[in-house]
Specification:
The protein has 392 residues and is α/β, with parallel strands linked by helices. The chain is built from 14 helices and 15 strands. Strands 1, 2, 3, 4, 5, 6, 7, 8 and 9 form a 9-stranded mixed beta sheet that branches. The chain has a 6-stranded mixed beta sheet with strand order 14-13-10-11-12-15. Helix 5 links the parallel strand 5 and strand 6. The chain is elongated and about 85 Å long. The structure holds adenosine-5'-triphosphate and magnesium ion. The site of magnesium ion has 4 residues, from loops.
Length: 392
């Protein structure tokens, strides 16, 4: 029996004017994600996208798993391909749905007849097929109001399709449809989740990571690269910028008041991130901060970091609890990597008594005791780029 996947477009179907370009982008994203799995043909009709595997050895479970992670898809289903002939539809339905229907107590049949030339009308298809299934699966009974299983028959242009489930897709908008933003990516739990949240809104992700060797190790950097790789499942390709930050951190340590170390460091991170954003056409910054999660994430501290920002800073986790963030991290499979115990540049030279509620003018003054500009320029210049493509 031949199985294909039908994809239903999501929220973008509502967005009148942009509909066409969203659909094109989603199509492109789907093709890119499935490329490694074999040869497929694609077709689109009546706001449904048809994915037909063309190689014998394509693993349809794997296709399904990939499809489930593509933003912009509201729902999808695996369907059995039938001839546009009722006898064939009935025969294949019995076989294809046998496992599902054997395990169920109640069902109903619905039919969608896009091809009006098909000789049977929808109610007739439902009644006939329902009768046949009742006969073949004697434990079943019909429940039109709240059935365990809904068998759907779709009569379309070239074929008929039968399926018994609609799987909820990843939702959101196709990655790329909202433009690009720069994620400040640490090795922690939060920032990879922030990437997922913004990618869901159609934002293509570039990532920037600050390293301070020898205070931070190669292993710490590799961990962040592993996170990037994992994120491509949801985000698609990611341009990863690695910034040498040692000299700047040492300059902060040697020249600024200790209680402001962290906040000044974060302002300099933002400064470098937005300079690289400008070159990369990223329209906003993204961080994994959550209000009051730690001392450096108070609203007052955010006021002080945002004072140096010339583009919007998205903090999609601002209102989430740690447990909620961890739940998402597990779902997107970044959690186990994130908890590997390697150091981050944020944890070197941490002040003993950080200012929890810094005032912008005090931070400004503390930072002005040293001219960071030459070091900022040098760090930007020596930033390394590595590109992570979907599927490695
Ligand atoms: P995370 O779990 O994302 O590391 P966190 O709770 O550890 O977050 P902080 O260490 O205060 O919080 O970092 C806050 C945010 O700053 C991070 O979510 C991330 O966006 C950014 N950040 C921290 N360290 C780095 C780094 N080395 N490179 C790039 N961005 C960083
Ligand atoms: Mg961290």
């Amino acid at each position: 029996m031949k199985e294909i996947i039908l994809v239903k477009y999501g929220e973008m179907a509502l967005k009148g004017l942009n509909k066409r370009s969203f659909e094109d982008m989603l199509t492109k994203n789907i093709k890119r994600r499935l490329k490694k799995l074999g040869k497929f043909t694609y077709a689109s009709a009546q706001s449904t996208f048809y994915i037909t595997p063309e190689d014998e050895d394509i693993d349809i479970d794997e296709v399904e798993e990939k499809i489930g992670k593509i933003f912009g898809i509201a729902a999808y289903c695996r369907v059995c391909v039938c001839e546009k002939d009722f006898a064939d539809i009935a025969e294949k339905s019995v076989e294809y749905l046998s496992e599902t229907l054997s395990a169920a107590k109640t069902f109903k049949v619905t039919a969608k007849r896009a091809d009006k030339a098909f000789p049977m009308k929808s109610p007739e298809i439902c009644a006939e097929l329902g009768g046949i299934l009742l006969e073949k699966f004697p434990d079943l009974s019909v429940d039109v109001n709240d059935p365990e299983v809904t068998v759907t028959v779709e009569i379309r242009d070239t074929n008929a399709y039968v399926h018994a489930e609609n799987i909820k897709g990843a939702g959101g908008l196709p990655v790329g449809s909202s433009g690009k933003a720069m994620l400040l990516l640490s090795g922690g739990i939060d920032s990879p989740v922030a990437a997922y949240m913004m990618a869901k809104r159609g934002v293509r992700i570039s990532a920037i990571h600050f390293v301070s060797p020898p205070y931070t190790s190669d292993r710490a950097r590799l961990k962040v690269e592993t996170l990037c790789e994992k994120l491509t499942d949801y985000c698609g390709g990611i341009a990863f910028f690695c910034v040498p930050f040692t000299e700047i951190q040492e300059a902060i340590r040697d020249n600024c008041p200790e209680e402001f170390f962290t906040i000044i460091m974060r302002r300099l991170m933002m400064e470098i991130a937005q300079r690289i954003s400008a070159k990369e056409e990223c329209l906003a910054l993204i961080t994994g901060e959550s209000v009051a999660q730690v001392a450096s994430q108070t609203m007052q501290a955010m006021v002080c970091t945002d004072a140096v920002c010339r583009i919007p800073v998205f903090r999609p986790l601002a209102g989430l609890d740690k447990t909620e963030i961890i739940e998402i991290a597990r779902k997107i499979d970044t959690f186990e990597t994130s908890i590997l115990p390697y150091e981050d540049c944020c944890t070197v030279f941490t002040p003993r008594h950080p200012k929890v509620r810094p005032r912008p003018e005090d931070v400004e003054k503390a930072q002005s005791s040293f001219d960071f500009e030459p070091l900022i320029e040098k760090a930007v210049e020596n930033t390394e780029l590595k590109t992570f493509t979907y599927g490695g």
